[in-house]
Amino acid sequence: MQVVLRAIITYLLLMMLFRLTGKRTLAQVTTFDFVLLLIVSECTQQAMISDDRSVTNGVLAIASLMVADHFFSHIGQKFKGAGKVLEGVPLVLVEHGRPFEDRLKHSRIEITEVLDAAREHHGLERLEQIKYAILERTGGISIIPEREGRLATGSSGKGSGAL
After folding, report:
1. pLDDT in tens, 26-37
2. Residues 6 or more apart from 14 whose CB is under 8 A from it?
3. pTM higher than 0.70, yes or no?
């Protein structure tokens, strides 16, 4: 029973840490992130199963983690408020070419990362070409380009929401 409690407590603590450190922790793995992930996984293993390295104990820890994950996933689906806390919500970083500096800073995202995503996925070169840049729940940045007509005419784009 001790391994089940250790696994669930470890799961909850890791979920809290990843939610506190932000979405970008999971989006793009750098060499530093990869090394950190390896170290965290070893520490997690030690925290969950302590000195008992039996197959039974390992399987019990894995099963406990899977049940906890399924349980919290179900809670997140059933209660939308809990889902927002557990999974987060998408966050608009740029709107009609204007960056939200406070949101970028809070999310630890540089404007160059937004421009990288715009260039990579849509061939866009300038902020003015971005209608919306959204930090998704997964940590990736989605780009919605401005319509060609709006860029050419300089209109406000307050008409239909179609792209």
Report:
1. 556 666 667 777
2. 40, 44
3. no
